[in-house]
Amino acid sequence: MKPYSLARRLVIAVLLVELLSAVAITGLALGYERYTQFHAFDIMLRGRAYSLLGAVQDAEDAGDNLMLDGTERSLPTKDIYQVTDAGGRILGRSTNWLGLGNGALKVNGDGIFRTRINGEHYRAIQVHGVRIVDPGDKGGGIPRHVTVVYGSETEHVWDVITDAVEFYAMASLLLLAISGVLMFWLLNRGLEPLRELAAAASVVSVDSWEFTPSEQAQGIKELAPLTGALEMVLHGLKRSFQQQHQFVSDAAHELKTAVAVAKSSVQLLTMRHRTAMEYEAGLERCQADCERMEEIVAKMLTLARVESQEESKPAPHATRFLDCVRAAGEQLATVAQEKGMQISISGEDAAVVNASAEQLQLLCSNLILNALQHSTEGAEVRAVVQARGNSVELRVEDDGSGIEPEMLAHVFDRFYRSDPSRSRKTGGTGLGLAICKAIAARARGNIEIASELGRGTVVTVHFPASTDG
Amino acid sequence: MRVLLIEDERRLAENVATALRDGPGFAVDCAEDGLMGLDLAGNQCYDLIVLDLMLPKLDGLALLKKIRAKGDRTSVLILTAKGEANSIVELLNAGADDYLSKPFDLGELIARAKALIRRGKGVADPVLRLADLELNTVEQTVHRSGKSVELSPMEYRILEYLIHRPRVIVSKRELLEHLYDYNWEHHSNVIEAHVSNLRRKLDAASQLPSIETLRGRGYRMVVDRQESQ
After folding, report:
1. Is the ipTM of this complex over 0.90?
2. Longest C-alpha distance within chain B, in Å?
């Protein structure tokens, strides 16, 4: 979609409304002017007609042979009039009388009618009066009905009306133009905080997450939801970006170190000539280094898979937890045997959890392996599954060396090793517990760790009990 | 020359230590965490500290700042897996002399270690010269009056250390501390034999004396005829 200017749209909309009102005002003005002007005109016409009637009544001729020639009253020369008696006899008419045109029939209640004579517009009035012929008689004279038709050109009235309308129209247009310009300027000024906000948002980058909306933008109520939303989104983005960045950085560090080990092992071999036995031992070391790299990569991928991809999948169906613990125990039996340790597994067979068997087994084997790695020879690692109300609990306990309290809070962090030298000896990658935490979180469970130096460690995992089984 | 290697990745530490022992014949002490490294750096004499950054207990940068605050002038070579520009600036500003990004080349590590030790002793030329004596630290060969002198690794290391400190009396203890790792006390009897062998081989190539023994005080390189008389 083509971008458009909100300011321009608003201005155009308001100007259109203004234009409509200007047209309406001009129309109203036209009607009003026309009404008042013609009202005044009609009064004037009536006045002139009566004055003419008066002239007829005052005529000195006592008979019916009254003739008017236009000199009786000082009437405007362009006006027309005609006086007739009841019989239709013309008693007098103006010199420029040319007939009444075809408008004569449409006489309204007031006796006003419009007509067109010789191309000119006229407005005329018809007045009936009584002329007393021969007032000197005893009987008071004979009343004679006379009709006066008096008309005047309307052109100058229309001139006045159009002048007035023109004035209104021009004034409206001028106001329209002024308000348009003013509004555009005000809108631009008013939208300034929006531009400032955009500018503040545009400088945000992965290197600088600082988002500081200007004070002006912060003070605007309408922008508050936008500012708030932006701040929240940026905060979330920053956190997830930093987490990702941290993960990539940690992973890179871990891999670089692993590669450094492998590379140095190979280079050490080539530094000088060595015996076949030395080469053999060296190659074994190289192989061990490569296997370690492989393990790190595999665990990183496992963690990534548990954490991200599987989120979209529906929760797996119910799995018997104890079976997974037993499978993990069997898997690690040889490791325990080599170290001279025991794995004891107990618990309730009926405890069922909504998680994939594969992941549960991975969780258990990670926890049991950790416990084995931190225990001394002859020790016992205990894994207990118990149903507790709405949840299922797994406890993995060892009597090993324990973890220092300040390290305890970080053991679930990726690549965190409570004691690097020790865990590297045992082949830890620092990802095992992070994977456990991700698996627990995936099944809406939680994982806790408690430890006492020299006494041992207890890892407790809680899962919501499955309702399917 | 004696090197302190502070690296928590055991396999890497083993490989680097072996390379430094096998190649230039340095004595190498290893520390697995920051605190152990700080302890060794404070109590022993080293010509170079090779320091990893990500260390348990005390990280490399903090350790570096601590030893520099104590006035320790030992050259420090940092091993880092970070490789970010600002952290390198921070490292150098904190008193590091050089750095290597993991994964690094063992050959490069050795060359840089040698250069740092040389620089630490105020020498820029990898070929050390004293009177008619010439010691090539790259090829690890020794010539006297133009004639090649074949030395055992230990004899070479003794000569290399002494040649860095002409005119100065180097005690047997100092020699031991710089040529052996922290088990140096076990070697105190053999050092005299090594020095005597070294002197015999050097003197065979020239009429001039080379190493003086000052009874009860130590050894001294003879710079020229005037001083020996």
Report:
1. no
2. 57
